[in-house]
Design brief:
CATH architecture of the largest domain in chain B: 3-Layer(aba) Sandwich
Low-confidence stretches of chain A: none
Oligomer: heterodimer
Strand content of chain B: 25-35%
Largest interface: A-B, 54 and 44 residues
Helix content of chain B: 25-40%
Number of strands of chain A: 10
Helix content of chain A: 25-40%
Shape of chain A: globular
Largest sheet of chain A: 6 strands, mixed
Shape of chain B: globular
Strand order of the largest sheet of chain B: 6-7-8-3-9-10
Number of helices of chain A: 9
Low-confidence stretches of chain B: none
Mean pLDDT of chain A: 92
Number of strands of chain B: 14
Distance between the termini of chain A: 33 Å
CATH topology of the largest domain in chain B: Rossmann fold
Strand content of chain A: 25-35%
Bound molecules: adenosine-5'-triphosphate, magnesium ion
Chain lengths: 239, 302
Amino acid sequence: MISITNLRKSYKSKTDKSFVLDIRELTIQRGEYVSIIGPDGSGKSTLIKIICGISPFESGKVCIAGYKLPEEFIKARLKIGYLSQNYTLYKNLTVYENMDYFASLFGIGGKKEKILNLLELVGLLDFKDRLSKDLSGGMKQKLSIACALIRSPEVLVLDEPTTGVDPRSRREIFSIIEEKVAQRMTVIFSTSYMDEAERAERVIIMNNGEILRDFKTENILNNNIYKSIEQFYTHIIEK
Amino acid sequence: MEIISVKSLTKRFGNFTAVDNISFGLKPLTINGFLGPNGAGKTTTIKMICGLLRPDEGSIFIENIDVIENPEKAREKMGYMSQNFSLYPDLTARENILFFADLYKIKKSERDNRYAELTDELNLHEYQNTLTSDLPLGIRQRVALASAVIHHPVLLFLDEPTSGVDPISRMKFFDFIRKYINSHKATAIVSTHFLTEAAHCNEIFLFNRGKIILSGQPAEIIQNFRYNIFETKTSLLTGEIKNILNNSEGIIEFYIFGKRVRIITEEDIDIQQISVRTGIDISNISVVAPSFEDVFISLTND
Ligand SMILES: Nc1ncnc2c1ncn2[C@@H]1O[C@H](COP(=O)(O)OP(=O)(O)OP(=O)(O)O)[C@@H](O)[C@H]1O
Ligand SMILES: [Mg+2]
């Protein structure tokens, strides 16, 4: 579903440390459920933006759902659902109107029922007529996620979907995400919650613009050295 | 004794009550954790204490300053890091931090000293000349924190400073705050959704629907927690078992934590009963110590 070879992208700076994203090889199959974790500035969002075709790169081959980036971006785009780290809500539309607008953009059928259902799941149904600018931080994030989840793209890419979301709601959100996984959707997300990262079947740890580790979650947990992905992460990053 | 005292504070937006008659006092030199579901009223409360939002009812005193009457006077003592923090995207990290220093009219030599110290402590060296809009979220949070403390406030209001920050840097954040509090004789309010951070606080306040439903020292809260916690693997959690857990007497709640399921039950339920009811072999169930997340989840269900 996703294949990347010899990808390079850099941000140069005269005075600051330059950043180079350097990925020799990354393949993600259809239906995989993958989390990306790593220190601040390790390149998680940069990689995600490249996969979603919204960030240019200097060299390398990036293929999404059979389309080559950047040339076939327009076609690839229709296959990908992307939730960015910054909210992209219309401040002066209500919660419901934001979702309705988003659903119309992608020509979603039977949208009213779907919208109400998703709002209920993320706990925003009581606030459906509130302007999005009047929502609390976490409520805005929940609305953005609900907008991203109304579609059923082949690949869903979520950049820190639960930043600022409370403990109960972030689990509701992951249960919706996992329903999509059960329907064989390919799901890739970054997170700073290690328990969320552990829910995925495969974990990618990034560091300094490179993939430091890439493994099946079960393989780490089953060897009985590490009780959790958090322990494993802390162990290898602190080294 | 109390540095901040809040009495019967209420804030309504139209006919919605965001903060509903809350009272509390904060002791000096403490870190106070504000926890609670989205929309519970944490940010609204912080904004009122900072004098940025006028309450409908109640009083707020900082030592003997009436914040509602004299917001300017109180604000000199404050550093506020807002949830969607206000960095200038077109300025570099360095320019942003210095901008705040100049706002508070800090002398240049002193300003440069403080700047050097903060870049050191928050590990910002390699990002100083990058536009803040180009910085990763976790780094932007550090710049915002530096901007909020450059004028050495004795009251720190940090609204979700660690959201989007990786686990190792999150620890360092709290080390920084603790050190700051000790060296500047300061007091902090910190809101967070990472419940493990409750352990770094002296006192925690759990908000729910505009009210404070629980407060106290973290250790005391865990000690007084009267429920049992069991853990099993998510791979064993079938739809059928979910049903049983949802409808079983004495089971308060269950939730997923990584590849494990945590089951919160009344005190009189033991591992044997969990095994019998769910049909999960006892070797796959363990009794575990309660966490702040368990406390949160069990108290905010409704
Ligand atoms: N200007 C406003 N108009 C209407 N409602 C508002 C306004 N500001 C806040 N609210 C509402 O007040 C409630 C409390 O919001 P607040 O931002 O204090 O929550 P919070 O506890 O900080 O949540 P989060 O964890 O998501 O940051 C929410 O329901 C929010 O939508
Ligand atoms: Mg808030």
